[in-house]
Amino acid sequence: MRNIHGMQVASELAEFIETRALPGTGVDADQFWAGMGELVNGFGPENRDLLAQRENIQRLIDDWHKTHRNHPHDHEAYKTFLEQIGYLLPEGEDFEIGTENVDPEIAQVPGPQLVVPITNARYALNAANARWGSLYDGLYGTDAMGSKPPVGGYDRGHGSRVVARARVFLDEAFPIVGTSHADVRRYHVQDGGLLIDDQPLASPGKFVGYRGNPKAPDAVLLRNNGLHVELVFDRAHPIGARDQAGLADVVMESAMSAIMDCEDSVACVDAEDKVQAYSNWLGLMKGDLEATLEKGGRSITRRLNADRAYCAPDGSAMTLKGRALLWVRNVGHLMTNPAVLDQNGDEAYEGLLDGLITVMIAMHDLHRAGGNSEHGSVYVVKPKMHGPVEVAFTDRIFTKVEDILGLARNTVKIGIMDEERRTSVNLKECIRAAQNRVAFINTGFLDRTGDEIHTSMEAGPFSRKDFIKRKGWITAYENQNVDIGLECGLQGKAQIGKGMWAMPDLMGAMLEQKIEHPKSGANCAWVPSPTAATLHAIHYHKVDVFAVQDRLKAGGRRAYVDSVLEIPLANYRKWTAGQILREVENNAQGILGYVVRWVDQGVGCSKVPDLNNVGLMEDRATCRISAQHIANWLHHEVVTAQDVMAALRKMAVVVDAQNGDDPTYQPMSPEYDGIAFQAACDLVFKGRVQPSGYTEPVLHARRLELKAES
């Protein structure tokens, strides 16, 4: 550790900052460290007080539920109580956000959004490069059309179905006067217009560019609802050679934005881990991040894609960005990290460190040609904030960060994750608290469910997880997020987002169901992979999100807090022993499958097979739900501690078998005494007393324990 400006800073973090991150920013090292000292030591006590306020409010809610547990729920009395303790605040007068200098990927073009762990350079590059993706590949390699292709080489029958399905998409998004894309033999440019077998598009303005010879272009660029589609022609290509028009691929503009995650999908517990995360963010912001991997017996190096060059219809040069607009998700207010100790020798709050360091690193991008932001902005998602006072605290943190780094006020734009109940019920005032920075709000229904259980832990046993999702509170929550976002003027200035599709192998189901997100008025929604982004982009061609938003505003729909405050308790509790056991085992299997990789391997986001061997994307939010659900049933004696331990041991055997092909995997059975298994037990048996039901304190402590032993 090094003693710097009243702090103890881990040597590897100090070296990274001084030798790699700061050079080129124009920020002096002494200026930076002095600023960090002011941030850590000046804002730390207030951070601690805000966390104490969370715990005090939770104690009051717990006591209220204990007092009223044996009485019918009185909604009005409950609501009045929440107002009296400052949990539910009055809505102020109407306003609109004043956020400026927002890039078009956020303000003007609805589309898919990726979230990836920043600690994995390959994933980070894949996400950044997912701005463009092959529709042919997305349809061919998944179950998007009902089934995957047969095992082996290229299957022409399946390929023909892909081509036909892509032509249907083109007919829907870019209809031609008097014919179908399936029957076209020639696409060419004449007098600044696109002719297709000598017929124009029904909407000629959707033709926006081309590449190559206008008489026989290599590519034709179309645009619908703000999203681009590139038709690639190549008669030497195996697909193009068999196509009457020579069409070899349909390339979709896909992930308009991507979140590089320092939070829920990573396992960063010390300076070593934080340097890895910050190093990859630095590579993205400087544009020089690389990742080498073995594929097909050869070494491949991945880099950030270049911009894409075209001719405009009038023949002038034009370019489109080749990469998604990047956000960085910082850690919330709860966790500390031993990478930096404050003046009292206590671990510094990790969110303060992330705020300063990730913004400083982003300064490499602010004036870089072809960089992330064309408007000089830095985009930071701030998760797990509880209510307006914590959003206001975040706003002041970034004001301080801008002052330390010499940046103009409101350079930093923030995303508010609407994933904690106290934020949901006060969303309008949360947005007001950072009204000149807000560029994103998002319904994080996974963490939101975990917080729903923890907040009302003492109210009674909750429904089974699948039934919680069917209750009215979640629809009210999702609607209110959009309604308040529009009411606060986010349309055309910011993203209104929806949550993750958690089944990356079930693209057919995603194509059927996830269209509901743009239909709801959300102009972005999370997907688990670049392929999913390409397929989800189809929905934004089918749905004009801004038109939906206009109808919502004109129609006057407004979801209100009363429905959001409904508690999804199990009113009918005549479960069979088998139903109870199945629910507990399902939760236990998900917890163990995730935690064993988190603790033993430092993997913060995993595709974990469930009991039916369906791969589910698991991160700390999904783990939080499962742990809190078992903790709730334990507390209300729906299930015994002995039954839970038996389920954990039984499911440990299942998880061991599911990971049998991983040579680095350490089995939990038959001893059940490893650190990972103990972490899972802590999450369940100590879940009720974890701050806000979060998993981080247990996971960090157990991961540090394992690293110390190693």
TrEMBL record:
This is Malate synthase G. The gene is glcB. Its cofactor is Mg(2+). The keyword Transferase applies. Belongs to the malate synthase family. GlcB subfamily. The modification Cysteine sulfenic acid (-SOH) is found at C605. It comes from Aliisedimentitalea scapharcae. Its EC number is 2.3.3.9. InterPro entries: Malate_synth_C_sf, Malate_synth_sf, Malate_synthase_TIM, Malate_synthG, MS_C, MS_N, MS_N_TIM-barrel_dom, MSG_insertion.
